[in-house]
Design goal:
4 helices; plasmid; mainly alpha; 2 domains; 0% strand; Arc_rbn_hlx_hlx; elongated; Arc Repressor Mutant
């Protein structure tokens, strides 16, 4: 294996979280199909670093939208256009 093919060294990082939160983390990585807790946490941290503008408020808005969809609170494109005064043509 050449130096270019050598995976980067990894460092162990210790964090303190409650047992309850750890159970939530474990349920999440298993439900999402990750191979390990570490793989899941690395992915979550990578997303947080690569997309720092995506925050908790964005997540809450997405989740609220998903709940609306699941509970049938949706609007047709015509309803949205009417509400915002859009006629569907480019301005």
């Amino acid at each position: 294996m050449s130096e270019a093919d050598t995976p980067p060294d990894k460092t162990t990082v210790n964090i303190r979280i409650t047992e309850t939160f750890l159970a939530d983390v474990d349920g999440a990585w298993e439900d999402l199909g990750y191979n390990s807790r570490s793989e899941f946490i690395r992915d979550v941290l990578r997303d947080a670093v690569k997309h720092p503008d995506f925050n908790r408020a964005d997540l809450k808005a997405m989740l609220a939208g998903e709940v609306d969809i699941q509970e049938g609170r949706t609007h047709t494109s015509d309803e949205v256009k009417a509400e915002y005064g859009l006629d569907g043509e480019d301005e």
